[in-house]
Design brief:
Aminopeptidase, about 25% helix, globular, binds coenzyme A
Length: about 160
C-alpha cells in the first residue's frame, strides 16, 4: 500500500476528524474519547505549528500527527502537545513511524531551532511506548493517577522526551 506523508491543509479537516473518531473508539490509545472528537477537531489539529497527514493513493487519511512549539521564550526550543493517530485498520504497517520521521525532519529544519520533542502516553499503552523508544525517546517520569478510565480505575501517564542535539 502506498502511503505518503504531507503537511495537512484545510481540505483535510473532515478526514482528520473521521480518523480521530475511529482511533478514539478503540480504548487504550488516544486520551480523547470518541464523543470528545468534535467537528472542530480538524481546525484544532490544523492550528498547531506542525500538522502532517498520511494519505493513501485514493486520498484516504490513514494517519495524522500534530504538535506545537512552546510559546514562552524559555521553552521555545521545545515541541510539545504531540498527538499521533493511525487508523485502527492500518496500525502496525509503518505509518506511525513514517509520520514521526517526517515530524522529526520538520523539527530539525525549524527556525528558531527545536531541540527537544516531548510527549505523554498512558502507562498501559506499551505498543506506542515501544515505538517511541525505538525512535529514541527516553522515559523521563511518571505521573501517578493522571488518567481516569470510564470504569473509575486510574492510569498513570509516562513522560517521554527526545533530544535533537
Ligand atoms: C501508536 C501508533 C500511532 C503507532 O502507529 P503504527 O503505524 O501502528 O506504528 P508502526 O507500524 O510505524 O510501528 C509499529 C510499532 O508501533 C507499536 N504499535 C503501537 N500500537 C500498535 C498496534 N495497534 N499495532 C501494531 N503496532 C503497534 C509497536 O511497538 C510497533 O513496533 P514493533 O513492530 O516493534 O512491535 C498507532 O498504533 C495508533 O494510532 N495507536 C492508537 C492511538 C495511540 O495509541 N496513539 C498514541 C497515544 S500516546
Amino acid at each position: 500500500m502506498s502511503v505518503s506523508v504531507r503537511p495537512a491543509t484545510p481540505a483535510d479537516r473532515e478526514g482528520i476528524v473521521a480518523l480521530h473518531q475511529a482511533v478514539a473508539a478503540i480504548p487504550g490509545g488516544l486520551a480523547r474519547r470518541p464523543e470528545e472528537v468534535t467537528a472542530d477537531y480538524g481546525d484544532y489539529a490544523l492550528a498547531n505549528d506542525v500538522c502532517l497527514v498520511a494519505v493513501e493513493a485514493d486520498g484516504f487519511i490513514c494517519g495524522e500527527i500534530h504538535a506545537s512549539r512552546e510559546p514562552l521564550a524559555i521553552f521555545n526550543h521545545v515541541l510539545g502537545g504531540l498527538t499521533v493517530a493511525v487508523h485502527p485498520d492500518r496500525q502496525g504497517l509503518g505509518i506511525g513511524s513514517k509520520l514521526f520521521e517526517a515530524l522529526i525532519a520538520w523539527a530539525r529544519a525549524a527556525q528558531p531551532e527545536i531541540l527537544r520533542i516531548e510527549l505523554e502516553t498512558g502507562a498501559a499503552n506499551h505498543g506506542a511506548m515501544r515505538l517511541y523508544e525505538r525512535l529514541g525517546f527516553k522515559h523521563e517520569g511518571r505521573q501517578t493517577a493522571r488518567g481516569r478510565l470510564p470504569d473509575g480505575r486510574f492510569e498513570d501517564d509516562i513522560l517521554m522526551g527526545l533530544l535533537l542535539f
